[in-house]
Amino acid sequence: MNLGVFNRVNYNAKESESGGMYSEWASLTSLIQNGNEESQSVLGKFPMGSGKEVAMAVVKQLAANLGFAQAAEPSPLTTDREVQWCMEVICFGMSLPLNEHDTIRDCVHVYCEWLSALHPVPKVSVPRPVCEDPNLYARKMICHFHNLFVPRKGEGADTINRQAVLCHRVLRTLQHLAQVSTSLTRETWEALLLFLLAINDTLLAPPTIKDDVGDQLCERVLSVLFEVWLLACARCFPSPPLWKTFRETCMNWRHRIALIEQWNRVNLALTARLLEFMYGPSFPELKIPEEDAQLIPVGMSNDCIAQSWFRFLHCLGNPANLCRPAVVSQTQKFLQFAITSENVIDPCQHPCLAALPLIFLKAIKGIAGQVDAFLGIPKASLIGLTSSRTTSVSAASSGNPSSALNSGPSSASSLSSMVSLGGDSRPPLAPARPKCNSILHMFGEWLFEAAHIGSEVVYYGKGPVQRNEASVNKRPSSLQLDSRKASLSLSQPGSLTDEADIPPALTIDKYEAGRAEALGALCCIFCAKKTGEEILPVYLARFYLALQQGLHINENRECSETLASILLNSADLFRLDLDGVQVLLPHFIDALEIVLPEKELKLKSPSVLKTELRRASIHLLLSMLVLPLHFQNLTIKEFGGGSSERGPLTFAQLKPRLMNLLINALQVESDPQNAQMLLGGLLLSVQDSAIAEEVEPVTQPDTCLGSDSTSNILSSDSAHALFVRATYLVCHRLISSWKTDLNVSLAALELLAGLARIHIRETDALECKRAVKWLCDYIVYQCSRPPPAHSKDLHSTIVAAFQCAAVWLVAHPYLLEDKECLTTVLEVVELGISGSKSQRKPGEPIRMKDEKELKPASMRVRDAAEALLTIILEQVGYFPSPCGAESLWSLLDEVALLRHCNSWPGGDHLSREMAVDRFRYFVVENSTVLALLEEPLGNDQDPQPTVTVLIRGPFGRHAWTMQLRHLPRHKSGTKYHAPNPGRPVPMADVGVSHDVKHRYFPENVDRIPQCKVDRSIPSMESLLMDPNVAAEHAHLSQLVEQQTALETAAGQQRCKETDGPFPECTPPPACHEFQTARLFLSHFGFLSLDAASGNVGSRLTALNTSLDGFCHDLEVLDNMSSRTCDTVHVFYVRAGQKTAEEILSNVQSESTVSPHFLEFLQSLGWSVNVFQHPGWTGHISTSWKVTQPTSEQARAPSNHGGSAYNGDSQVLYWADASSEIAFVVPTQCSEHDVSPQFDSSSESTNVSGQGWFERSISESTGNVGRSTEKTRTLSLDLDKPSALSSAGTNGSGRRHAGAVRHSPPPHSNTKVLVFWTESFEDQLQFPLADLLRATTTGLEGGSGRVPDERDCFLICLHALASGLLRVKLQGPAGGRTSLATPLVDGMVVSRRALGSMVRQTALNMCRRRRLDNDSYQPPHLRRRIKVQELVQKYRCQLSYPELLTYLFSDPPT
Fold this sequence. Notes:
Helix content is 42%, strand content 6%. By secondary structure, it is an alpha+beta fold. The model is unreliable at 4-16, 389-419, 461-500, 699-708 and 1232-1306 (pLDDT under 50).
């Protein structure tokens, strides 16, 4: 069933205030207003005194039988004549003056008792004739009751109260009768309904007078009327004349606020039931109070509910007329009042009409509540729409109707908790909701008319209420809207300006709250448009015109209620493919310039929350940012009459305004969520501008030399200017106001990292240097906060700031050529690692490392600082390497190196075990494994001492070959060892021999007189004075003489034994065998001669490679990346698809996907072959190794729609210096085991009683099996005393051992899924549980369980007809840091920036998840722990002499 079922009669219903669908039927209004003869008594023909005496006497006797004072007795009346005579008397008794209260009371009691004749069991006192024909008598009694309700003039408050009590008794009796009686005939039902209409009209049609009987009974008579009418609908459906009369009389009471409340109450109760059977149980329930839900009679059929709903809805006529006092007061009773009052005035001057603004507001709120219910987003609170508990006329007349109505925010502005960053806090629209056209057919006419109240453009409806001016005045540009003669007149007069002397309380601006409500409801309807749904152009035209008028800004630049309502409810307006919606762009920007840049926003409505208004405005802004560059020089058409003074406007001209709006909004934003949304928009703007300028260079006046002044930067919207402004603003706010908020700090740091990666041609080095300096200052400030402030969140911001600084330095390596910048960065690294700087303030003495106490802010901060230091030393200026970004390591391992050695005989079979046996393994500093190969590689011909070293440290594996050279390479062409030159030829001549006395000093020394210094060294003879020394000297001389004699004798003996002369002297052969491992370790300071104390032995540990498992553990270490690795799975969803098989099969062919999707895939990363790719591939089984594929695996599909990147042979890959990310397009659900392919011991610590925590083995194991000397390793011994006594994390964020946790996987396994959807509504019904089976990466942990679908991050991309894309984000509900930027829920993104934005968001989501994970360990820490585990398992227990002996022994062969 659809709303269209009602639309056939809908336009007829609107034809006029009085006719409509009942125009063919006669009305019974005159019968009601002129009184029924049945209610006149014959006693009325006599003087009042006579009649009164008769009535008093008779009624007293009748009442005596009823059983009030004594037991009830059967009635003495036995014939029809007797009963009818008594009824004439009772009829007269009810019309007596109120001072005859007892008589009137007895009359009421008698009739109320007699009416029990219609009950299943009548009372004893009911006369027999009444019991025999109860319907006939009941109709008469009901008519007679009318006399009781007629107001008496001049009565006091006390008597009026008594009258009201009796009226209540009658109403209660009649309502009970309608509920319990099963014998009511159609005539009796009609009499009852006519009676209720008559008494309502009698009491309520006159202008309201405070505390008269009408005022006192107002709510009660209306509630009984509506409730009994509903009962009649279920039991005996009222005839068309009755419905027509009901409608006409209701329009006489429109000045009564209780009427609107009852109308809302019944409408909402019927709507709730209507939704149940029209849209089924899955449709969101309209929650109404229990007492209202009970209004609907049990057993009322669905058809009856639908018919009743439609008729009740239209019983008030056009609600827009409630803001026209002249129309509301155009009734007989108001005219009588005007004529009879002393000063004859216009009926619309009556003070009771001051409540009209509030009445109008309540009526429109009721309609808006029904609109929300049909859209599936029922209001959180309907209080105030259906009761007067909080209303008062005085509040409305004070000029602020909304202050009198405590019903929460406007129709669709009720905002609650957030689901995704920037996510609309309203509940999602129901997927089964009716089409917009259907809702507009039903409520549109009223809402459009209400939305134009008081605007310059007057909206004229149809029918007799239309003012004459509409046809008399000239209408210069009347717009014919449809065939039903409705028109929009662009003439100037407002709705009420032509009416004479409107009271101040009824000026048109007093109705602004209701108008705002109508505009809000219209915005909700149009924002509920589904993908591909058509909305009639006539409705779009009316809507745009209403918005243009509603967005009008008044002179004092105050945010009016209409403006606030439009902004709150139209967040989706520019992301829905509404035809021609761009014409509103300048008007919305004008409105946003009122709201967003203002720190102290002037709000007219106190019920609007400033934060929510700003959030809705930011949503609108985020959907506009890319429009100028997308449509560029396309002209925005003017509409609504009157040409603009500024001439034709193009989209490109709006860009500077949008950019200023964005920057100014961010400057004053105080709400954390809003600030994050703006930061995402800022990065999108810079990214989009930079890529656009790269593709199509834009000539900007400020890009020329010498024009980079502040004013030019501020006025320009080029990528460079935006980059400078964004960097400055975000850094400034990060330091000043965002530093205490985790999520905003993270978003700001993500933005800065994104800015660092953007390629802008004229990047300003000074700006980049300033940004790095701000980052360092931020870290210093955060580290220096007092201990109570140190928490996990604080340390997360510090870690993120270190990561951000690393991105800046890798992207801008020239920054470290600046001495000041280098000093600043390294000081912050030192602060992070050690907890303090060596030089705190300029002028203070510098403290060396060994003088400082090592107290980093936390272990996480230390690890982040270490990572930054390594990136500075290894990657800045060298990333990416000539081989690409796929690997930061050397791909050479023991097997590859040994194949290049001279000693390797060749052949294919070389196992890792064989290769490892040729190396010597040592661990240095408890964190670095050295594998030493003591033979030259085959490409080196020099016989130099050569050692090849494989260094495995926390940050990777590197191969070095070193030679010990005595000459530099450029001189090494000369041979070190020349061939034997032969013996020289002896010369015959003998030289002259001179006999010269040998002297140690020149002769003239003897002539120089000696001084004391000369005698300071004693002569040998003087020493021999001591007898002991003389004896030793003599003994020594004796030994020397003996040795001389022995050597002389040995020489002579040798001469006798040899025949010829001495053999020739030849140089020894060159040495080819060196103990190069020992030389290397010694030269690098790991061995020293004074190590006899044994202290050095603890610095260098030899490993025993012969033990089982060594090769496997080494391989596990090599399989631990030094970068974070993440995986994003990308899906293409065609419209209407709901099963995983359908979705996964889309990418098999390019004909089943959008070409823009393939373009998007290529922008995410670069394609790599998983077998030749040394980095992360999306699955652990193929990552970090290079293998040979089979022929089938190597064959990539052609004409694919993305399936080539399913991970079988190719994936899309992107990496920077600290992270890797693989983009996989799954094609089938994985059936294989998802347990990891490496040994789980790589994460466990093998220490009993220790859980998984972010500490190194050296701290957690004490001194097991090692020297008891204290060692200094890179793993700092923090919190040792408390390490085993406390668990978890203390206030400062430092981790303690003893927290018993299950081992998590070594990497974070955050599931990020990207969906490209053809229909936006499909994102509500993704088969996530099935699709997750296609997203295994091997990192899920040993259990192999598929992650919970609620724990996934979803990035949904919906392609709009304009070529732009709408983003929808969803994340785990409980994550505090999970909602990352730069993408924001609802953002509209250009295709050129999409790939980069999605990639950065996915990376940031994973980073935030790691920051939030207590048990996460950074990659380099995991590698260090693995190295320490190797030491534990494979160390050689050698003393220092044994270690040296091991080094002097021959190398392994």
